[in-house]
Write a structure and sequence with these properties.
5-stranded mixed β-sheet, single chain, globular, 371 residues, alpha+beta
Amino acid sequence: MIRLTARAIAISLLIAGAAAAQVPGKPLLNTQQREELSKLLVEFRRVRGQPEKRQAVIERAGNIAPIAVSQVLEIVRKELEPQLIDYRQQFLKAAGEVIAARTATDKLEEIKQIRQKVLDLAQKEDLSKAEIVATSDPSLARLKELILVNRDDILKSNAKLGVARQRLFVLGKEWELCATLILSEKPDDKAKAGSAPQAGKPDEEPADIDTTPSFENYLVKDEELATALATPMSDKARQALAKNAQLAPQLDPEEARCVLDLNLTRNLLGLDPLTIDLKLTAAARDHSKDMLEQNFFAHESPVEGKKTPWDRAEKFGTTASGENIAMGTLDGATANQMWWHSPGHHRNMLGDHTRVGLGRNGQHWTELFGR
């Protein structure tokens, strides 16, 4: 069952695509730029397997516009995707073998106590980022020690994994360069998570998360997700993840990765996974698109008929019980990190919701929850 579920979920863990939309205030490519980009894309495909030449092409695309780099990134993503899926399958199998050889039955009481501590803290009305960092972060780290196996132990258990892992970095470095150029276009905009929409709550301090593109960090997170997928969980949880995996092809790859990361965090804490709601997803995407095109970053929209999260959910034929927004990353797991360290968003992540919709547009993210 683990392998079948993981095979379906693999499609939800694809590398970030080139869905980055037009940068606000920046014109689309003119005729000369389009012709130059067309030639660059042909050249980029032609020099596959020649890292230095490919890097030069990426940098030349960066001199045109971020949207030009996004086109190159799409080529990299499609080339990297099959290698990454194959590596994930290898890693998941090795993780399952290592996990099967150990038990944590003597740690059940400690696991129960840690989970309750994190969940109780999340309900605190005046929860602060400092409390999350001081209490929830080390608690989650301890749960991973108790429940998961160390990814390094999995790598050591299978020599072929190291070889396959290293092979990914040729294209991985190209992905990293493309993402860096795209994210560096607006250096004055800090990566941030918007305050959660709660009456009387002041804006929260932006989450202090490093959003610098790193393929190594991206791959480490993938390995952690694969380890969590191989961990024993309830039939209800695994069925929910399998159902989400069936819907994952209808999501942007990073939207799916973000939802999976959220659900595996909830599973560590003993909470039920949230099921993907495509209507909430459509509403979330629409808000991210509006934020990008209308150049604002807030839960309250200036667009008529879409002022609040509840208005936007209703417009797409559903209901919402909470909303998270973030800006400044192309990586779904990083968006989750930003929300985890932002009190209102943290509370939403661990709330008693049953549904979730995730919508990304470029660097803008919206996460809508429903009951």
